[in-house]
């Protein structure tokens, strides 16, 4: 069975309580359950992880390639707008990476308009709340 990594970056462990008017009320565990259920229906499995440490995300991107993951869904959180190292890691792996965001960064503060991940990702899905992850999963399965 193909595996799709779902990697979540900085502060996403606070979903459900952190600015729900922007990020929605779903917790990361609730999103994980939705993804696991849909993945089963699609005939794939998901490996869900979260870290507030940039290096963990980079290591997991490398791991995804090493194990032959079908794709990576990556919500870098605040690292989206700051991490050249994450940009380089996404660019370095052959595993397709889909950038995911709950909110629409383009509709927010100007500093959020620049993504270091987007230009090297296979695609970006943003602005649909927790449903962004399900849309990204559907796209990953179709790659």
3D architecture notes:
It is a single chain. With 143 residues, this protein is α/β, with parallel strands linked by helices. The chain is built from 5 helices and 5 strands. It has helices at 20-23, 28-42, 54-66, 84-92, 131-142, and strands spanning 3-10, 45-50, 71-77, 97-101, 123-126. A 5-stranded parallel β-sheet has the order 2-1-3-4-5, with helices on both faces. β3, α4 and β4 (97-101) form a beta-alpha-beta unit. α2 (28-42) runs parallel beside α5 (131-142) and α3 (54-66) packs parallel to α4 (84-92). The longest helix has 15 residues, at 28-42. The radius of gyration is 14 Å and the shape is globular. The model has no long low-confidence stretch (mean pLDDT 95).
Helix and strand pattern: EHHEHEHEEH
Enumerate the spans where pLDDT stays under 50 for 5 or more consecutive residues. Answer: none
Number of helices: 5
Give the structural class: alpha/beta
SSE map:
Layout (H helix, E strand, L loop, with lengths): L2 E8 L9 H4 L4 H15 L2 E6 L3 H13 L4 E7 L6 H9 L4 E5 L21 E4 L4 H12 L1
Parallel strand pairs: 1-2, 1-3, 3-4, 4-5
Helix pairs in contact: 2-5, 3-4
Tags for this model:
143 residues, alpha/beta, five-stranded parallel sheet
Short account of what is shown:
The protein has 143 residues and is α/β, with parallel strands linked by helices.
């Amino acid at each position: 069975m193909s595996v799709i990594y779902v990697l979540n970056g900085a502060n996403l462990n606070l979903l459900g309580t952190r600015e729900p008017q922007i990020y929605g009320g779903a917790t990361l565990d609730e999103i994980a359950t939705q993804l696991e259920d849909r993945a089963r229906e699609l005939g794939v499995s998901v490996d869900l992880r979260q870290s507030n440490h940039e290096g963990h995300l980079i290591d997991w991107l490398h791991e995804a390639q090493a194990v032959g993951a079908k794709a990576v869904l990556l919500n870098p959180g605040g690292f989206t707008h700051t991490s050249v190292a994450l940009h380089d890691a996404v660019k370095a792996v052959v595993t397709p990476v889909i950038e995911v965001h709950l909110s629409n960064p383009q509709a927010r503060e100007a500093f959020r308009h620049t993504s270091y991940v987007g230009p090297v990702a296979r695609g970006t899905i943003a602005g649909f709340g927790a449903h962004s992850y399900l849309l990204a999963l559907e796209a990953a399965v179709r790659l």
